[in-house]
Amino acid sequence: MITPDYCSTMARYGWWQNESLVTAADGLSPEDRAMDRGAFFGGISDTLNHLLWADMIWMSRFDGGEAPKGAISDSKTTIPDWPMFKAKRAEVNARILTWADTLTATELEGELAWFAMSLGRELSKPKVLCIAHMFNHATHHRGQIHAMLTAAGARPDDTDLIILPKDERWL
Question: Are the CB atoms for 41 and 142 separated by under 8 Å?
């Protein structure tokens, strides 16, 4: 299904796209970032926070590191302070890339088990499915954020994976 190279590519793509969205959102006022724009998680800030929360919860399952506080219902307010959010987003981008760059094919095998608070029960799924889900989930919400930013007059980068720039930060 997926390979370590796929994970590294998607981690680089995610970093690039997250950085693009945060940079575009940085040009908006706090009120414009906070405005409810009808997305599933509300507005730009809320959806960015949900995405950060989700990346952190999945990474805690994959690498055993820090998990975010609260449940999915709290994810919109993971880090409400904009400068602190930007710093944490950059930290988590690096965490995902470091993890992806050290994966081996053997580590992709088997099941991942965790307690899903949103369902109130234990789940167990193939690791590759969980990893693909994390990257797919992020792409989904980044698409929502991109649309909201564009509607607000901001100009994030194009989103095409095939134009992922070669950048020393992601090599």
Answer: no
Do residues 33 and 163 lie in contact, with contact meaning Cβ atoms separated by under 8 Å?
A: no
Domain spans of the chain, in order of start: 4-170
Q: pLDDT category, 170, cuts 50, 70, 90? A: low
Whole-model pTM: value is 0.94
pLDDT at 1: 79
State the Cα–Cα distance between residues 170 and 142, nearest whole angstrom: 18
Angle, helices 82-102 vs 44-63, to 10°: value is: 30
| Assigned CATH topology for domain 4-170 | Four Helix Bundle (Hemerythrin (Met), subunit A) (1.20.120)
Does residue 118 contact residue 16 with C-beta atoms inside 8 Å? no
